[in-house]
User: Fold these one by one.
Assistant:
Number 1:
Amino acid sequence: MTRLPRSAPVPLAATGLALASLAFLVEDVWLVKFSSWLIFGTLALSLAFIWGRGGIFSFGQNAFFGIGAYLYGIAAINLVHSTGETVTAFLIGGLGGALMALILGYFMFYGRLGDVYVAIITLAVTLVLFTVMAGTAGPQYRVGEARLGGYNGMTGIPPIVVGIPFQGDGIRLTPQTMYLFVVVMAVTLFAAVSRLSQQPFGRVVIAVRENELRTELLGYDIRRYKLLAFTFGGAIAGLAGSAFAAWGLFVNPAVFGLRQAALVVIWLLVGGQASLIGPFLGAALVEWISSTLAGGVGGDETPIILGITLVLVVLLLPHGLAGLLRLMWERLTRSTRRAPRVPEGKPGETSPASQKIPSAILTQLLQNARTDAATLEVRGLAKSFGGVQALDDVTLSFPARGIRCLIGPNGAGKSTFFNLLIGRFPPSRGRIYLEGRDITRLHPHRRAQQGIGIKLQVPSLYPGLSVRENVWLASFAVSRNVPDANRRTEEMLGGTGLAHRADELAANLSHGEQQWLEITMVLAAAPRVILLDEPSAGMTREETLRTADIVRGLGEVASVIVVEHDMEFVRHLGAPITMFHQGRIFVEGTLEELRRDQRVLDVYLGRERARRVAVE
Amino acid sequence: MEPDLVVRQAVTVLSTVAVLVIVSVGLAVIFGVMRIINLAHGEFLMLGAYSVLVISRAGAPLWAGLMVAPVAVGLIGLAVERLVIRFLYGRLIATMLATWGLSLVLVQLVVMIFGPATQGVPTPLGSLRVGGYRISEYSLALIGFAIGLLVATYSLFTRTRYGLLARAASQNPLMAQALGVNTGRTNAATFALGAALAGLAGAMLAPVVGVVPSMGQAFIARAFMTVIVGGPAVLTGMGSAAALLGGAESLVSQASTAFLGQAALLLLAVILLRIMPQGLSGSWGRRL
């Protein structure tokens, strides 16, 4: 991530100039068409950002586009006489789109609705807006001088008039200058989106798409990131809507219709989402084809062609036309270039944990990042799911430094205990204190910020991002400072022996390496309390022992709580053990003490019940 | 309030709830059981209504339409599942986009065949006198239909071998396959069932709403909202959500306009989901 290719400003400027120069080479009829393609491309760009980058599928881009268009119309009609310009109205349209997205997004993302629900709610809102605007036919539906016009739409919208507010009449744009205005808008928004993708904000948005849970457990407020991304997408769509109304001098409820909503998705699917050029190519291609073949949108067969296109693209081209072209290009060039992505050799051999990593380095790294250790205490913690008492009256305290092992048979409540500590769900009763502060009701990301880090049982990474990007996201979560995060990322990569695989996608790592990467990420976030859920699962014996060494090192600077089934690993840690059984603390002591305890053996061997029956 | 007015109001509210249940049952089956977002649900409903239109134009009574519509639309659903949906299982957005494309095609085909104008099917049955008011017997019939549909679908999924297999195939397809369930066939049957229920819904509503190619759009948002607000218990939760949302819609539209009623439904749904993201039945611990 720190070495990602920057969005190149020179080609972008050159493309912008080339597009602009068309204004002086091509007839007005074509410029009007080009303008609309760029406007639609900008609309598709907004979807490319929130869906392609943020992973949020929204039908609502049309709603924001339409709101932008109507607001431009209303503002321009009312303001143009007094201010002498409509650029303010243009911006109001964008603001309206952003505001609508903000309100809608608040309910959806702070309600933590799933992707499906977001798609459906945005669809419902778009359809309702269609009904609302179609029902505003009467003369009573007017805002100032602007009549909404119901199904037939709002007419008499002024074009873009460029000027300084209240300084006399500005310049009314002609088709030629309007085209230039649209080019400037599209290029600016394109640059903004691609620049944002390079910024920490954009990186975290992509992280949310890749793995929400991990992002939250690193300390990012995913609700906020989703909301901001959604609002930004709404602003882009709103501005495109403004431009659309100024381009057509007219707007009707069809902008909220299903056909228009389908078009946006088709543009994007055809163009592909991988690059931000895709939406523009898709919009231009689809609009050009439909204007030459089907006589433009409005022809009888258009919805049928659109519908069939949508079905076929989904069935046959899951990555869009651009994806197909890229695949063909890769096929063509594969014979000449040889670039094995997955390295040869057995996974165990390349695993960094098997290399000699001095645990002292890790301990040092952790100590550098955070000097304040913290105690963790739980009192009377209980959790029931329906009728099942998963955890019952657990009181435990963990010192600021040191290791504690939690063991117990499956279903003993260990995972529930961890989930309560990190805040994935609230306890039914009881309190949790971090360094004396009550954190029982804090959101997971707030707890992560306070210094609780967890390695989950199943590796939870960003499979589609590189190892370096994975570690960077963890580092940035603490420092919130790019140079610091960059430095820490390289330190962690060097310290944990992952440096030679830094540019590999996390998905391409072996299982043991993924475990290791997750531990590295947890440490990069410099936690004060480290929760490890079966850290040695999937590791070879040698890796297991080395991991145990490292965990012992971590115990010198932080509070480490380890859930583990591997008794060899537990023995190697030499730490006090708490055994859970049926949601309660069953016994505490050293491994030796537990081994001598007949009751412990009974639980593990399932003899308890048999014996009770025998006694009776 | 006069007792006769109370009765009339109650019937109005209940029949709004009933309409919501009727249009949502098929969706609850396809979305709730199969986790597929079928955006062509509204168009399946519309096709059901057109089936009744064709049948009643031919001079047959309404009940004949009620028999034919689910069969016809169920067969269309089966074809859609075999030709498109089965390639897209597990790809949520993809199924959504494909069914969306399908809905655009279906609407336009119906426009080309039957024209874009609204057409009517005569309302059967007469009306009852309650005090100073008249109550349409068909709206009482709709309430009966809604209850019948819920009970029948619930029984189908809990009491029959097919119901068990269908739930197994959607909850854990690999395990179901390992146990010898032909999940491909079960899924096809469930999708066809959902389509048939949508067709039946369209047939039941044809006499009380205008039959028009775009009628699906009028219902789809409300149906989805009802199913989502219902939550994981797809049938009982959906029924409760219909009662709540339909009640709100009906009361608001009586006090103001039909449009504000729909807006109230949407607003209430969004607020409910903000408070209970898992839906009404989120903590009920049941799946039907």
Note: Confidence is low (pLDDT under 50) at residues 1-6, 337-351 of chain A.
Number 2:
Amino acid sequence: MSNLSLFAWLVPIAPLVGCIWCAILAFRGEAKFAHVPAIASLLLSALMAISLLALGGPGTEGYAVFDGYRYLQIGGMTVDISLRIDALCLTLLTVVTSISAMIAIYSKDYMHDDPGYARYFAVFCGFVFSMTMLVLSHNLLMLYAFWEGVGTCSYLLIGFWYRKPSAARAATKAFMVNRIADTAFLFGILLLSFAVGQTDVGSGLNWFARLDFQNIFDAAPVLAEKHSGLLTTIAFLIMIGAIGKSAQFPFHVWLPDAMEGPTPVSALIHAATMVTAGVYLMARMAPLTALTPSVLTTVAWLGGITSLIAAVMALYQDDLKRVLAYSTVSQLGYLFMALGAGSVKELVSVAVVAAMFHLVTHAFFKALLFLSAGNVMHAMGDVIDMREFGGLKRVLPKTHVLFAIGAAALAGLPPLAGFFSKDGVLGVLAEASSDTMVGGHFKLLLGVGFLTALLTAVYTSKAFFKTFYGQEKIPAAAGHHAHEASFTMLAPMAVLAVGAVFVGILLGPTGAIANYVTQTPGLHHGEHSEPLWILALSAIIAVAGVFVGYVLSTQPQTANDASLASKLAEIGRNRLYIDWFYNIAFVQPLEWAGRFLAWFDVAVVENTTNSIAGIPRLVGMVGQRVQTGRITAYSYLTAVGIAAVAIWIVMQGNW
Amino acid sequence: MESLSFAWTIGQQAFDPSNLPLVFGDRNEGHFSKVMLLVIALGAVSYWLMQRGVVKSKPMLWTGVGLFVLAALMSFAAIPTDLESIVRMCFCILGIGGGFGFIIAREPVHAALGFATAVLSTCGVMFMQYAYFVSAATMIVYAGATIIIFLFVLMFAQQTKLRVYDVELTRPAVAAFIGLSLLIAIAWSVAGPEEILPIKLDLTREKSLAARAKDPERELPPVPRPGITDEQVAEFIPFKTSGLGRAMYTDYLLAVELAGTVLLVATIGAIALAQKPDGGAS
Amino acid sequence: MNIVETQNLLLFGGTLFAIGLIGFLTRRSLILMFLSLETMLSGVSVNLIAFSKLHHNYQGQVLAIMILTIAACEAAIALAFVVSLYRRKPTLDVRAWDELSETILPHEQEVESETNLPEEQFPSLTPAGLDPLVRPIPSSVDVLLHESKQHPSASSQEVTQRV
């Protein structure tokens, strides 16, 4: 088993070494070959992950824990850094590492000539390190630590061009919104540790060890019997953490602004990996959340609302990257809807399988779409507003093909990957809707799912046709950039395109992913087949949506139209005024309070302190008057002193 | 000097202090006469008037002088009326007058004259206290060498013109007040007779005692031993210069040698200080 | 009488000392200040001689001689000082020497430095959505609300601005 341990440890350690190496290069200012350690370490990490998968992973037991490094030992409490691998973890790990390696190769050409080249790769590798450690962690608290690490690297990468005020603001917004959600997450973790300590499974363990996943899973049924209210609260708080990281309503506001970062960053973090951490958390805690159906129903509803409103907002955006961002949010909503279907007891495994399947396919085609948008942006001289360019099919032929593949996969056209995975989600929703207790919810959610699928197809094809078809228009800022991307940029995209085409067929209908993921302890095998009507209906919806999108893309822009559609467009463009509401409800009062405190600090506290500090100066100034330097004055003082002493002695009366 | 000692003995028996006519104060032995306080106060006022008068107006000056004369005359009322006392008081008044003249004079040379007067008066007083050598030495050093040096420096630094720093005084009222309070404190401290021990033993006399053992003819202060009477002790008057010399070079030899060393160091220091900055000897 | 004589002489010595003190405080010429010092010393000498007479021993006289000696040394060094000071500034005024005085420095202002960074060219996204700091009140929402109350189907003549 030592081989497995070595492979497992190499997966996070290689990007860490790459990160440190690139950081050193960044500090020394030698950035020209910074991509070499980054790409090499990421390729090694991907290779290790794939070999772990190929070697049969953790074997018959279902999971394996590899001890690493004793981080802390205080009294009876020990904090270890260890890795836990099981089927669920390896699935996501493979996706994360391979897509990271592809995007790193892409970034080599995209980010060249940027002054922060080495810094980019350093934070990139740091991100991959945190993400892999998050996926591989064996303890919920360790997962939380790397959760924060991932958030930090996201902040650093969104605000990569930190001198640009909007980028800095967007990075702060992302971090703040995540932080709010993570606070609830932390409360959930601490409550969980306390709760596990109440059971006899965990009562003998120290505070940190109680949060080992195995201990949590063992203690969960006991908790569900005795303290079901506590368990519901814990699951709710953990859900909030997942929602914050994965940009669901009401924490979705950071993801569209996160497009201020470089496009490869958007592809990696905000499409394929970081935002899926929330889904991974919910999947990991499935044995726990399966015992709290109310929380899962809330999850499903939040996912549904998010996917619908994100799809609506995506419809009205003019910016290609923002369309893709909203579509990410919408697809993540799908994932949460699928996970939420686990509130029906027997559907937990199927729900997790469906979510993981859609996660894998979505990672491929969304990364592909973002990289294509990056090609367009690079060629158009950093202009990404779809109104500024058009008809790029002739200028960027290969990108056109790759974007088409990605868009078709996103829209759900058969037989591409998105079709099968979206069907998996809709199928599990349909099964859940036949449940007696919560079936009503899921019927509605199924309708929401279909509507969102339609809207997805509409806006995807609208964006595609607007960009690549129509009258050819190249903005002036493009200059000499308006040519096809280089081989270094196209090759990874081709790999991703292959994945987007074939992963769906290979994994879904064959049941490979279902069989594999259910090897995770806590999930059990289940027979599940898709009802045929869902397959047919989703195919029809996809084709119809593509057609509607084509029609919409050819419509001219009407600027000043007072019709209802235009007003809806206005609302959609302004992100349904959710940001505006957050601003006046939370941000402005806090800023006002901050300004007041700043005024208070300067006017009151600082003035008081300065006045107190000025007292020695005043005393000194008084004392300075005595030091005139004139002998006469000094002799006067001496004489006064002598006379005073003499009088005092005389008045004593005694010698 | 034996005649004076004889006169002294006679005087001691003839003039009992309790028989003296006192103008003010109680008839207690040795009690300090309160008239001296008034004299001190008048003296301070007269000083202030005189120095104002020198600057401002002649009448003020003469008023101050008049007050000074009045104070001097009043002070004669506080002493017993024998020749020695009167002469001593004259010397005191002369000395104080010279001091006043010294501190209010405009011309520096006039101030030097006042200083010389004060010093010579102190020499006279010391002479009357049988301190012959000390008074002679004082005359030579103060009234001689110091005045001469002063005149030399004045000629070196000032030639003849009168400068502003000679004329103006710095806050004389405050200074007079300080001096007055100091004097009152001194007067108060000498007021109590019981605090001045009339007979004080000379405790550092081993060497002179040893010398006397070798040579009993020498004139030395009486040794405090049981059996000696106060009159015998009181009879001794330290008036011989040879006795002073013997006491200096036997009992206080260390002090004398150190004084000589200090003189040497001061001489070298003065020469070193007064050199020109570029190293040439002045 | 002994006591009275001694008291008077002590008072005389004290008076000479006080006169010397007043002279030292009030005079501005260096040599006259020095002469006042000598006056003070002579007052002390008188004091010592009076005590010598009172106690019938040589202690006071010997100490008076020591004082005389020290006064002589002091005279020598003080006048050497006066000469060397005169070489620096050609005046005998004691007020000329006040270079040990404290000068009151003004309060230092904190210096704030500004850094100017060169502007780089950054890629820019289309502004999407409302910038709440620029448009605090969305007019279209107001219009929509007003319309929904009065005439749901009437079309307003207002021009909706693009954000």
Note: Chain B has a mean pLDDT of 75.
Number 3:
Amino acid sequence: MKLAISKSDSKRIQIPLARDVELGPFDEVEVAIEVREPDYVPRNVQLRGWIDKNLLTGKILKGNLLELGKDERVHSVQVGKRLRIPKTDGR
Amino acid sequence: MGIRRHRPSALGAGAAIGDSGAAAVDATDEVTGARSAARRPDGPSGLSLSTAVAAEFDPRLQKLVAVRRSGETTEATASTVPGEVAVLARVSDLDAWVALSEVRPGTAVRLDDGSGAAIVTARIPLSRIEAVRRQPFVVSLKAAQDLRPGLGAGVRQTRADPATLGAGLSSQGGAGAVVGIVDYGCDFAHKNFQSTSGTRIEAIWHQGGADTHDAPFGYGALYERAAIDAALKQPAPYSTLGYGPARDTPHSQGTHGTHVMDIAAGNGGGSSVPGFAPEASIIFVDVSSEDIPWQGPDVVTTSFGDSVRLLEAVRFIFDRAGTRPCVVNISLGTNGGPHDGTTLVERGLDRLVEEESNRAVVIAASNSYSDQIHAAGTVVPGASVEIKWNRPPSTGWQDELDIWYAGADRIAVELLMPDGTSAGIVEPGETGEAQESGKVVLLIASRLNDPNNGDNNIGIFIDDSLPTGVWTLRLIGRTVTNGRFNAWIERDDTSQASFLDNIEPDGTIGSISCGRHSLVAASYDAHKSGTPLSWFSSAGPTRDGRQKPEIAAPGHAVAAAHSRTSTGIVIKSGTSMAAPAVTGTVALLLAEAAARGIDLDIGRIRTLVTNNLARAPGVQGWNSRWGGGMLDAAAAMAALPRRRPPGAGTARLESSGSSAARAAKSGGPTRGRATATGRKGPRPRPSKKK
């Protein structure tokens, strides 16, 4: 087994690798997006709501993430990451 | 070096592991076989004994007398009747002791000194404790200690019980404050969350529920107080409401969220043991979901939330709380991430508590101290560092690993499989991918200059189909000025991978627990006189060297509400249980501050709590596992200013680093509410788009 090497995609996108692997381009992903301009909603993003005026949450097709990462008015994007309950073992 | 792995106990004391495989919610009304609640005499009182009596009285008896003077009484236990208390005494005249009408004798052991003295047990009326103690033949009298771990122990040990907090408070039990719980499995039918007027839960937002028209952010199901109250009047409340906590399984007893909620804000109405802020209002967001498309044949379909939805949950809670003081508890987390507070989730949480005074977020530190999930070291120019990474035989999960290093450095990574074969080298800024039968089974992404912190990140994904055993990461220094790296293995409750070398137990706190403003809680055992630290409690500091956790609280063997039992309790351990102790205490402080007309910004809230800690055993100053010390609610409360300044409106106490304080210093405008649209005023409803 050998790795096929390519250049990394946009550095603005943080996506859990398991999700990157599992989801296809037409699957929706939930994202938090920090924008440089207040109230700016990037193209192709279905707005869900605002955390503050520069931080929004929404949905986007995974296949559109690359374009989102090239948007100069977008500072960074975080694709939803699975949360866990901290493991507890004993009393 | 052996591999340390931890499994859930059959009884589910470590319920979190088993929880992950169970349905998160269950709207049917089958009731778990209820365990009877512990009945403990934890009653509120601000009264104290007369000085003459207090000096010689057992502190627990003092509290019981204070309880009685406040008009309350003790509940029945297995061996006492209501209004009665079990005692242990040393008496010089056994016959005289037994002859007392107040005494219901238990056992007696005569001492061998020929004096007639004896050690005795008995039950005596609460109203007669002082009279019995004054008898000349009663040498000592102590309340019997309940050996069963209980929530009350943590409340007392942190001095959060009403009797210790003091009589001069303007608030009671956090009344007026809102406690937000972001977790899963809210048992609204447990009597610890009900008052004489109905439910204490203002709203439940089940993010994974079928969409309702009024759901926040346009998804999930929202259950308002009126609907909860209506359901509680029915014989089948869960099916009536359409929401309920998951049933017990052999591996999981009691839902995590109900337990956490009880510690923070239960009133003891069912179990008789109140939590830290028993009068606070409650808003619960259930983050469990089955509609997040976590795909793959082996992925458990129920998720305990998502980082984006977590942000939305906290936004919703603060919006619902409005102008009331509010503290949100998050006993969730992940391992992977930059651990420097720069993720959008952490920064979003920071902004939400900066936005308004009287808001706070408390997060569990995590329980990964012994799991060998963190490795760290230094790469030097032209050389390499090898890290052994053990992937045990898996039961159906992938592995993920996250490496962070300084933005100016350039480090390549080579991955060697268990048989020593190299999968290849990925240079900085490249992505390496391997497929088998059209499926990506190995992915290495080397990202340069993360937009949030400027550092570099290497992520590695290994599919479950690849060989288990010891893999080797070889980090190769191409351009190195700093050289320091940190690596974390993501959580896997069924088959946790671990590092075999370069292990660094510090820096094991959760990756959402590194924000600037969150209060992060470690765990200790409040039932033992030495208050030992919990073996699992994760360590700080953050990757950028900030002191987290800030605080330790009782999280070991905590008995709190057992879902689907109405009145029962169950024992759970974890920093998940420590965090709500801090949350409840912050609610007490916020409620009292509000009652005194004082606004507290997040910096001041943090200072109040962290500057008034009890010293952890054997520790001086901040410690990577203990934080600054043990929670001391009474000390924090005592540090709260007594009154607002004369002639002032609402006094705002701000830390020097707050945005408002900075604005004031610069002559700029004082802070107004930064709404989602940048306008000041009422917040617009979130978009309904999904």
Note: The two ends of chain B are 49 Å apart (CA to CA).
